[in-house]
Protein backbone atom coordinates (compact mmCIF):
# COMPACT_ATOMS: atom_id res chain seq x y z
CA UNK A 1 0.00 0.00 0.00
CA UNK A 2 1.39 3.43 -0.88
CA UNK A 3 1.38 5.80 2.07
CA UNK A 4 0.41 8.72 -0.14
CA UNK A 5 -2.44 10.73 -1.56
CA UNK A 6 -4.20 9.00 -4.40
CA UNK A 7 -6.96 11.59 -4.77
CA UNK A 8 -10.18 10.54 -6.44
CA UNK A 9 -9.37 7.29 -8.26
CA UNK A 10 -11.49 6.64 -11.32
CA UNK A 11 -11.74 2.94 -12.02
CA UNK A 12 -11.92 2.32 -15.75
CA UNK A 13 -13.64 -0.75 -17.11
CA UNK A 14 -12.73 -3.48 -19.47
CA UNK A 15 -15.21 -3.38 -22.40
CA UNK A 16 -15.61 -5.98 -25.12
CA UNK A 17 -13.71 -8.70 -23.36
CA UNK A 18 -14.87 -12.02 -22.13
CA UNK A 19 -17.03 -11.97 -18.96
CA UNK A 20 -15.38 -12.96 -15.73
CA UNK A 21 -16.46 -16.32 -14.33
CA UNK A 22 -16.35 -16.51 -10.55
CA UNK A 23 -15.86 -19.46 -8.26
CA UNK A 24 -19.55 -19.13 -7.38
CA UNK A 25 -20.43 -20.43 -10.83
CA UNK A 26 -21.00 -24.21 -10.73
CA UNK A 27 -22.04 -24.95 -14.30
CA UNK A 28 -19.47 -26.80 -16.49
CA UNK A 29 -17.77 -24.52 -18.99
CA UNK A 30 -18.81 -24.71 -22.63
CA UNK A 31 -16.32 -24.54 -25.46
CA UNK A 32 -17.51 -21.00 -26.27
CA UNK A 33 -16.87 -20.00 -22.63
CA UNK A 34 -13.24 -21.18 -22.88
CA UNK A 35 -12.75 -19.38 -26.19
CA UNK A 36 -14.03 -16.10 -24.71
CA UNK A 37 -11.89 -16.48 -21.58
CA UNK A 38 -8.71 -17.27 -23.55
CA UNK A 39 -9.19 -14.49 -26.11
CA UNK A 40 -10.48 -11.83 -23.71
CA UNK A 41 -7.59 -11.76 -21.23
CA UNK A 42 -9.82 -11.09 -18.20
CA UNK A 43 -8.38 -14.15 -16.39
CA UNK A 44 -4.82 -15.46 -16.23
CA UNK A 45 -4.05 -18.97 -17.44
CA UNK A 46 -3.69 -20.11 -13.81
CA UNK A 47 -7.15 -18.71 -12.98
CA UNK A 48 -8.70 -20.40 -16.04
CA UNK A 49 -7.07 -23.72 -15.07
CA UNK A 50 -8.38 -23.40 -11.49
CA UNK A 51 -11.85 -22.63 -12.84
CA UNK A 52 -11.76 -25.76 -15.00
CA UNK A 53 -10.61 -27.79 -11.98
CA UNK A 54 -13.64 -26.59 -10.00
CA UNK A 55 -16.35 -26.71 -12.68
CA UNK A 56 -14.98 -29.06 -15.38
CA UNK A 57 -16.20 -28.63 -18.99
CA UNK A 58 -19.42 -29.63 -20.70
CA UNK A 59 -17.80 -31.19 -23.78
CA UNK A 60 -15.34 -33.95 -24.58
CA UNK A 61 -12.50 -32.24 -26.49
CA UNK A 62 -11.40 -33.74 -29.79
CA UNK A 63 -7.91 -33.44 -31.23
CA UNK A 64 -9.21 -30.53 -33.30
CA UNK A 65 -10.59 -28.82 -30.16
CA UNK A 66 -7.20 -29.12 -28.44
CA UNK A 67 -5.50 -27.62 -31.48
CA UNK A 68 -7.96 -24.70 -31.58
CA UNK A 69 -7.61 -24.02 -27.85
CA UNK A 70 -3.84 -24.17 -28.14
CA UNK A 71 -3.97 -21.61 -30.96
CA UNK A 72 -5.87 -19.30 -28.62
CA UNK A 73 -3.13 -19.59 -25.99
CA UNK A 74 -4.22 -22.55 -23.83
CA UNK A 75 -1.10 -23.94 -22.15
CA UNK A 76 -0.33 -27.47 -20.93
CA UNK A 77 -1.82 -26.77 -17.50
CA UNK A 78 -5.20 -25.80 -18.96
CA UNK A 79 -5.27 -28.78 -21.36
CA UNK A 80 -4.29 -31.22 -18.61
CA UNK A 81 -7.01 -29.86 -16.30
CA UNK A 82 -9.57 -30.42 -19.08
CA UNK A 83 -8.41 -34.00 -19.64
CA UNK A 84 -8.35 -34.79 -15.91
CA UNK A 85 -11.83 -33.43 -15.18
CA UNK A 86 -13.33 -35.21 -18.19
CA UNK A 87 -11.89 -38.57 -17.10
CA UNK A 88 -13.31 -38.05 -13.63
CA UNK A 89 -16.69 -36.99 -14.98
CA UNK A 90 -16.92 -39.85 -17.48
CA UNK A 91 -16.22 -42.36 -14.69
CA UNK A 92 -19.33 -41.28 -12.77
CA UNK A 93 -22.68 -42.95 -13.56
CA UNK A 94 -24.89 -40.66 -15.57
CA UNK A 95 -27.97 -39.49 -13.72
CA UNK A 96 -31.28 -39.39 -15.60
CA UNK A 97 -31.93 -35.94 -16.96
CA UNK A 98 -35.23 -34.30 -16.19
CA UNK A 99 -36.68 -31.93 -18.76
CA UNK A 100 -35.73 -28.38 -17.78
CA UNK A 101 -36.35 -24.91 -19.08
CA UNK A 102 -33.13 -23.08 -20.01
CA UNK A 103 -32.39 -20.45 -17.39
CA UNK A 104 -31.58 -16.93 -18.52
CA UNK A 105 -27.91 -16.04 -18.59
CA UNK A 106 -26.64 -14.77 -15.23
CA UNK A 107 -25.64 -11.16 -14.85
CA UNK A 108 -21.85 -10.97 -14.54
CA UNK A 109 -20.07 -8.13 -12.73
CA UNK A 110 -16.82 -7.05 -14.42
CA UNK A 111 -14.77 -4.47 -12.46
CA UNK A 112 -11.29 -3.64 -13.69
CA UNK A 113 -9.63 -3.37 -10.30
CA UNK A 114 -10.52 -5.00 -7.01
CA UNK A 115 -8.67 -2.44 -4.87
CA UNK A 116 -9.33 1.31 -4.64
CA UNK A 117 -7.07 3.57 -2.56
CA UNK A 118 -8.03 7.16 -1.67
CA UNK A 119 -7.14 9.84 0.87
CA UNK A 120 -9.24 10.21 4.03
CA UNK A 121 -12.19 12.53 3.49
CA UNK A 122 -11.86 12.56 -0.32
CA UNK A 123 -14.22 11.14 -2.91
CA UNK A 124 -13.75 8.30 -5.38
CA UNK A 125 -15.73 7.01 -8.33
CA UNK A 126 -16.01 3.22 -8.47
CA UNK A 127 -17.20 1.96 -11.83
CA UNK A 128 -18.34 -1.54 -12.77
CA UNK A 129 -19.72 -3.22 -15.89
CA UNK A 130 -22.62 -5.66 -15.96
CA UNK A 131 -22.76 -8.16 -18.80
CA UNK A 132 -25.22 -10.90 -19.63
CA UNK A 133 -24.28 -13.55 -22.15
CA UNK A 134 -21.18 -11.54 -23.00
CA UNK A 135 -23.21 -8.43 -23.91
CA UNK A 136 -23.48 -5.10 -22.01
CA UNK A 137 -26.64 -4.94 -19.90
CA UNK A 138 -28.15 -1.45 -19.50
CA UNK A 139 -30.77 -0.41 -16.96
CA UNK A 140 -29.56 -2.61 -14.07
CA UNK A 141 -29.96 -0.90 -10.69
CA UNK A 142 -27.04 -1.76 -8.40
CA UNK A 143 -26.29 -1.08 -4.74
CA UNK A 144 -22.74 -0.85 -3.35
CA UNK A 145 -23.18 -2.44 0.07
CA UNK A 146 -20.96 -1.05 2.82
CA UNK A 147 -20.45 2.34 1.20
CA UNK A 148 -23.06 4.09 3.35
CA UNK A 149 -21.12 3.73 6.60
CA UNK A 150 -17.79 4.95 5.25
CA UNK A 151 -17.73 7.92 7.63
CA UNK A 152 -16.74 5.46 10.34
CA UNK A 153 -20.14 4.73 11.89
CA UNK A 154 -22.39 1.99 10.57
CA UNK A 155 -25.57 3.48 9.21
CA UNK A 156 -24.04 6.94 8.71
CA UNK A 157 -25.79 7.17 5.35
CA UNK A 158 -27.47 5.11 2.63
CA UNK A 159 -25.40 2.82 0.44
CA UNK A 160 -24.47 4.25 -2.97
CA UNK A 161 -26.84 3.34 -5.82
CA UNK A 162 -26.14 3.46 -9.58
CA UNK A 163 -27.83 2.29 -12.78
CA UNK A 164 -25.93 0.83 -15.74
CA UNK A 165 -25.93 2.99 -18.87
CA UNK A 166 -26.15 1.93 -22.53
CA UNK A 167 -22.65 0.45 -22.29
CA UNK A 168 -23.59 -1.59 -19.22
CA UNK A 169 -21.53 0.64 -16.90
CA UNK A 170 -22.60 1.83 -13.45
CA UNK A 171 -20.55 4.50 -11.63
CA UNK A 172 -20.74 4.90 -7.84
CA UNK A 173 -19.61 8.09 -6.09
CA UNK A 174 -18.21 7.12 -2.67
CA UNK A 175 -17.00 9.44 0.12
CA UNK A 176 -14.02 8.00 1.99
CA UNK A 177 -13.95 7.79 5.78
CA UNK A 178 -12.40 10.59 7.80
CA UNK A 179 -9.85 8.17 9.31
CA UNK A 180 -7.74 5.36 7.81
CA UNK A 181 -9.86 2.25 7.26
CA UNK A 182 -10.00 -0.74 4.92
CA UNK A 183 -13.40 -2.10 4.00
CA UNK A 184 -14.80 -4.64 1.54
CA UNK A 185 -17.63 -3.18 -0.56
CA UNK A 186 -20.02 -5.54 -2.37
CA UNK A 187 -22.04 -5.02 -5.54
CA UNK A 188 -25.63 -6.24 -5.31
CA UNK A 189 -28.63 -5.98 -7.62
CA UNK A 190 -31.34 -3.78 -6.11
CA UNK A 191 -34.03 -6.29 -7.10
CA UNK A 192 -32.19 -9.22 -5.49
CA UNK A 193 -31.03 -10.82 -8.78
CA UNK A 194 -28.01 -13.09 -8.29
CA UNK A 195 -24.78 -11.57 -9.62
CA UNK A 196 -21.66 -13.53 -10.53
CA UNK A 197 -18.10 -12.48 -11.32
CA UNK A 198 -16.05 -10.24 -9.02
CA UNK A 199 -18.70 -8.75 -6.77
CA UNK A 200 -16.42 -7.15 -4.14
CA UNK A 201 -14.00 -4.23 -4.11
CA UNK A 202 -11.44 -3.52 -1.37
CA UNK A 203 -11.73 0.17 -0.44
CA UNK A 204 -8.62 1.51 1.33
CA UNK A 205 -8.60 4.93 2.99
CA UNK A 206 -5.15 6.43 3.60
CA UNK A 207 -4.31 9.07 6.25
CA UNK A 208 -5.02 12.67 5.27
CA UNK A 209 -2.09 14.69 3.92
CA UNK A 210 -1.83 16.74 7.12
CA UNK A 211 -1.20 13.63 9.23
CA UNK A 212 1.55 12.18 7.01
CA UNK A 213 5.25 13.01 7.16
CA UNK A 214 6.27 15.76 4.78
CA UNK A 215 8.39 14.29 1.93
CA UNK A 216 12.04 15.29 1.94
CA UNK A 217 12.64 17.86 -0.77
CA UNK A 218 15.74 19.22 -2.40
CA UNK A 219 16.21 22.86 -3.36
CA UNK A 220 17.24 24.06 -6.78
CA UNK A 221 19.20 27.29 -7.31
CA UNK A 222 16.67 30.08 -7.00
CA UNK A 223 14.71 28.41 -4.19
CA UNK A 224 12.44 26.11 -6.25
CA UNK A 225 11.59 22.90 -4.42
CA UNK A 226 11.66 19.65 -6.34
CA UNK A 227 11.26 16.00 -5.41
CA UNK A 228 13.14 13.17 -7.00
CA UNK A 229 11.30 10.19 -8.58
CA UNK A 230 11.91 6.94 -6.75
CA UNK A 231 12.88 3.97 -8.95
CA UNK A 232 10.88 1.71 -6.64
CA UNK A 233 7.77 3.90 -6.70
CA UNK A 234 7.82 4.72 -10.41
CA UNK A 235 6.45 2.45 -13.13
CA UNK A 236 3.40 1.03 -14.88
CA UNK A 237 0.58 0.32 -12.43
CA UNK A 238 -2.38 -0.66 -14.66
CA UNK A 239 -3.16 -2.02 -18.12
CA UNK A 240 -0.02 -4.14 -18.63
CA UNK A 241 -0.13 -7.78 -19.67
CA UNK A 242 -3.54 -7.43 -21.30
CA UNK A 243 -4.70 -9.11 -24.48
CA UNK A 244 -6.49 -7.58 -27.42
CA UNK A 245 -6.90 -7.73 -31.20
CA UNK A 246 -4.54 -6.36 -33.85
CA UNK A 247 -5.49 -2.95 -35.21
CA UNK A 248 -7.92 -2.23 -32.39
CA UNK A 249 -7.77 0.09 -29.43
CA UNK A 250 -6.99 -1.35 -26.02
CA UNK A 251 -10.02 -1.74 -23.78
CA UNK A 252 -8.43 0.23 -20.94
CA UNK A 253 -5.56 2.74 -20.84
CA UNK A 254 -2.10 2.05 -19.53
CA UNK A 255 -1.24 4.03 -16.39
CA UNK A 256 2.31 5.09 -15.51
CA UNK A 257 2.85 6.59 -12.05
CA UNK A 258 5.74 8.68 -10.72
CA UNK A 259 6.28 8.81 -6.95
CA UNK A 260 9.02 9.99 -4.62
CA UNK A 261 10.79 7.97 -1.92
CA UNK A 262 7.96 8.69 0.54
CA UNK A 263 5.36 7.37 -1.90
CA UNK A 264 3.85 10.76 -2.74
CA UNK A 265 2.90 11.44 -6.40
CA UNK A 266 4.99 13.96 -8.33
CA UNK A 267 2.99 16.06 -10.82
CA UNK A 268 4.29 17.97 -13.81
CA UNK A 269 7.26 15.74 -14.72
CA UNK A 270 8.01 15.07 -18.42
CA UNK A 271 7.75 11.41 -19.46
CA UNK A 272 8.96 10.21 -22.89
CA UNK A 273 6.81 7.44 -24.42
CA UNK A 274 7.49 5.12 -27.35
CA UNK A 275 5.77 1.99 -28.68
CA UNK A 276 6.70 -1.04 -30.78
CA UNK A 277 3.90 -2.72 -32.78
CA UNK A 278 1.32 -0.14 -31.85
CA UNK A 279 0.28 3.51 -31.97
CA UNK A 280 -0.08 5.98 -29.10
CA UNK A 281 -3.32 7.95 -29.22
CA UNK A 282 -2.78 11.57 -28.07
CA UNK A 283 -0.21 10.67 -25.40
CA UNK A 284 0.33 13.19 -22.58
CA UNK A 285 3.90 14.38 -22.07
CA UNK A 286 3.74 15.29 -18.35
CA UNK A 287 2.39 13.61 -15.24
CA UNK A 288 -0.98 14.92 -14.04
CA UNK A 289 -1.92 16.14 -10.56
CA UNK A 290 -1.96 12.52 -9.33
CA UNK A 291 1.56 11.91 -10.67
CA UNK A 292 0.18 9.68 -13.44
CA UNK A 293 0.35 9.45 -17.22
CA UNK A 294 -2.61 7.70 -18.85
CA UNK A 295 -1.82 6.21 -22.25
CA UNK A 296 -4.46 5.21 -24.81
CA UNK A 297 -3.03 2.68 -27.26
CA UNK A 298 -3.97 1.09 -30.57
CA UNK A 299 -2.43 -2.30 -31.30
CA UNK A 300 -0.23 -2.65 -34.37
CA UNK A 301 -0.84 -4.97 -37.35
CA UNK A 302 1.24 -7.92 -36.13
CA UNK A 303 -0.06 -10.64 -33.80
CA UNK A 304 3.07 -10.28 -31.70
CA UNK A 305 4.06 -8.60 -28.45
CA UNK A 306 3.33 -4.88 -28.22
CA UNK A 307 5.78 -2.96 -26.02
CA UNK A 308 5.29 0.54 -24.59
CA UNK A 309 8.39 2.20 -23.09
CA UNK A 310 8.26 5.08 -20.62
CA UNK A 311 11.50 6.99 -19.96
CA UNK A 312 12.00 9.45 -17.11
CA UNK A 313 15.66 10.41 -16.86
CA UNK A 314 17.56 7.23 -15.97
CA UNK A 315 14.33 5.37 -15.16
CA UNK A 316 13.10 3.20 -18.04
CA UNK A 317 10.01 0.99 -17.67
CA UNK A 318 8.36 -1.23 -20.26
CA UNK A 319 4.78 -2.49 -20.47
CA UNK A 320 3.96 -5.52 -22.63
CA UNK A 321 0.60 -6.40 -24.18
CA UNK A 322 -0.48 -9.30 -26.36
CA UNK A 323 -2.63 -8.68 -29.45
CA UNK A 324 -4.21 -11.71 -31.15
CA UNK A 325 -5.09 -12.00 -34.85
CA UNK A 326 -8.35 -10.45 -35.99
CA UNK A 327 -11.26 -12.29 -37.62
CA UNK A 328 -10.70 -14.18 -40.87
CA UNK A 329 -10.77 -11.78 -43.82
CA UNK A 330 -9.01 -13.60 -46.67
CA UNK A 331 -8.24 -17.10 -47.90
CA UNK A 332 -4.67 -17.49 -49.10
CA UNK A 333 -4.47 -20.38 -51.61
CA UNK A 334 -1.00 -21.61 -52.62
CA UNK A 335 0.13 -24.13 -55.20
CA UNK A 336 3.73 -24.81 -54.36
CA UNK A 337 5.24 -21.36 -53.90
CA UNK A 338 2.74 -19.63 -56.19
CA UNK A 339 -0.38 -17.84 -55.00
CA UNK A 340 -3.51 -18.89 -56.86
CA UNK A 341 -5.79 -15.97 -57.66
CA UNK A 342 -8.51 -16.53 -60.27
CA UNK A 343 -7.34 -19.22 -62.68
CA UNK A 344 -5.82 -22.63 -62.03
CA UNK A 345 -4.32 -24.69 -64.87
CA UNK A 346 -3.50 -28.33 -64.11
CA UNK A 347 -1.27 -30.90 -65.73
CA UNK A 348 -3.29 -33.74 -67.31
CA UNK A 349 -1.44 -36.69 -65.74
CA UNK A 350 -0.62 -35.60 -62.16
CA UNK A 351 -2.55 -34.71 -59.03
CA UNK A 352 -2.21 -31.17 -57.69
CA UNK A 353 -2.13 -30.02 -54.08
CA UNK A 354 -3.41 -26.67 -52.83
CA UNK A 355 -2.51 -25.18 -49.44
CA UNK A 356 -5.34 -23.09 -47.93
CA UNK A 357 -4.52 -20.59 -45.14
CA UNK A 358 -7.02 -18.10 -43.67
CA UNK A 359 -5.59 -14.71 -42.66
CA UNK A 360 -6.97 -11.62 -40.97
CA UNK A 361 -7.06 -8.21 -42.62
CA UNK A 362 -3.39 -7.64 -41.72
CA UNK A 363 -2.13 -10.97 -43.06
CA UNK A 364 -1.76 -12.75 -39.72
CA UNK A 365 -2.25 -16.49 -40.13
CA UNK A 366 -5.27 -18.21 -38.57
CA UNK A 367 -6.17 -21.87 -37.96
CA UNK A 368 -8.32 -23.53 -40.62
CA UNK A 369 -11.89 -24.35 -39.68
CA UNK A 370 -14.55 -26.09 -41.78
CA UNK A 371 -12.49 -26.67 -44.93
CA UNK A 372 -14.58 -27.63 -47.99
CA UNK A 373 -13.81 -27.89 -51.71
CA UNK A 374 -16.10 -28.65 -54.66
CA UNK A 375 -16.01 -28.57 -58.48
CA UNK A 376 -18.75 -27.93 -60.98
CA UNK A 377 -17.90 -30.66 -63.54
CA UNK A 378 -16.43 -33.86 -62.13
CA UNK A 379 -15.47 -35.02 -65.64
CA UNK A 380 -12.92 -32.21 -65.86
CA UNK A 381 -11.63 -32.25 -62.29
CA UNK A 382 -12.23 -34.15 -59.06
CA UNK A 383 -11.54 -33.33 -55.41
CA UNK A 384 -9.91 -36.48 -54.00
CA UNK A 385 -8.68 -35.20 -50.63
CA UNK A 386 -9.44 -32.51 -48.04
CA UNK A 387 -7.33 -32.47 -44.84
CA UNK A 388 -5.98 -30.01 -42.27
CA UNK A 389 -2.84 -29.89 -40.14
CA UNK A 390 -0.69 -27.33 -38.36
CA UNK A 391 0.34 -25.77 -41.68
CA UNK A 392 -3.21 -25.14 -42.90
CA UNK A 393 -5.75 -26.88 -45.12
CA UNK A 394 -4.84 -29.21 -47.98
CA UNK A 395 -6.97 -29.84 -51.07
CA UNK A 396 -5.89 -32.59 -53.47
CA UNK A 397 -7.18 -32.40 -57.07
CA UNK A 398 -7.12 -35.07 -59.76
CA UNK A 399 -7.47 -33.96 -63.41
CA UNK A 400 -10.03 -35.68 -65.60
CA UNK A 401 -10.66 -34.79 -69.19
CA UNK A 402 -7.69 -33.05 -70.81
CA UNK A 403 -7.68 -30.64 -73.68
CA UNK A 404 -8.44 -27.23 -72.24
CA UNK A 405 -11.85 -28.00 -70.73
CA UNK A 406 -12.66 -25.75 -67.75
CA UNK A 407 -14.88 -25.89 -64.69
CA UNK A 408 -15.38 -23.87 -61.54
CA UNK A 409 -13.61 -24.73 -58.25
CA UNK A 410 -14.92 -23.46 -54.92
CA UNK A 411 -12.86 -23.49 -51.69
CA UNK A 412 -14.42 -22.59 -48.32
CA UNK A 413 -12.80 -22.30 -44.89
CA UNK A 414 -13.26 -20.29 -41.69
CA UNK A 415 -16.44 -18.69 -43.00
CA UNK A 416 -14.79 -17.45 -46.23
CA UNK A 417 -15.18 -18.55 -49.84
CA UNK A 418 -13.06 -18.14 -52.92
CA UNK A 419 -13.86 -19.19 -56.51
CA UNK A 420 -11.51 -20.26 -59.26
CA UNK A 421 -11.73 -21.26 -62.91
CA UNK A 422 -9.85 -24.55 -63.24
CA UNK A 423 -8.78 -26.20 -66.51
CA UNK A 424 -6.67 -29.15 -67.64
CA UNK A 425 -3.94 -28.68 -70.22
CA UNK A 426 -3.97 -30.72 -73.39
CA UNK A 427 -1.51 -33.59 -73.53
CA UNK A 428 1.57 -32.94 -75.59
CA UNK A 429 1.94 -35.09 -78.70
Broad CATH class of the domain at 228-324: Mainly Beta
CA-atom Rg in angstroms = 29 Å
- Residue windows where pLDDT falls under 50 for at least 5 positions: 1-25, 210-224
Question: Could you name the CATH topology of the domain at 228-324?
Answer: Immunoglobulin-like
The CATH homologous superfamily of the domain at 228-324 is called Immunoglobulins
Shape: elongated
Structural class by sheet pairing and helices: mainly beta
Largest sheet: 5 strands, mixed
Instruction: Calculate the terminal CA-CA distance, rounded to whole Å.
Output: 86 Å
Number of helices: 4
* Share of helical residues: 10-25%
Which architecture of the domain at 228-324 would the CATH scheme give at its second level? Sandwich
- Average residue-wise pLDDT: 78
User: How many β strands by DSSP?
Assistant: 29
User: What amount of the residues lies in strands?
Assistant: 35-45%
Folded structure, characterized:
- The protein has 429 residues and is mainly beta.
- Among the domains are: 59 residues, no CATH class; 97 residues, Immunoglobulin-like (Sandwich); 95 residues, Immunoglobulin-like (Sandwich).
- The protein is built from 4 helices and 29 strands.
- It starts with 30 loop residues before the first helix and ends in a 5-residue tail after the last strand.
Q: Briefly, what is this?
A:
With 429 residues, the chain is mainly beta. The chain has helices spanning 31-40, 45-55, 63-71, 76-91; strands spanning 107-110, 115-119, 123-132, 135-136, 141-145, 160-163, 169-175, 181-189, 195-197, 200-206, 218-219, 225-226, 235-238, 243-245, 254-257, 272-276, 278-281, 292-299, 306-312, 315-324, 330-335, 338-339, 343-346, 352-359, 372-375, 381-389, 392-399, 406-413, 416-424.
Amino acid sequence: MHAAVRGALVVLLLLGTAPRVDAQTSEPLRKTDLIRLLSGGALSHREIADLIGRNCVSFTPTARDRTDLGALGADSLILSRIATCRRSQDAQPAAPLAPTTPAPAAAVVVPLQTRVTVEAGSEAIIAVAVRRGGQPTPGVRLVLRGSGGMAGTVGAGPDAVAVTDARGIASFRVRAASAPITRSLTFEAADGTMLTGRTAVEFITLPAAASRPVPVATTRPGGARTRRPSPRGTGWVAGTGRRGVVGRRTAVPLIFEVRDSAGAPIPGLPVALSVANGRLLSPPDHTDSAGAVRVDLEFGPRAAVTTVTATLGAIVRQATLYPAPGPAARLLVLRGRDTVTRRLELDPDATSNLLVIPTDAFGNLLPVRGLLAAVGDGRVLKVVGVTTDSLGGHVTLRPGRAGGSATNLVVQASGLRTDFTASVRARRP
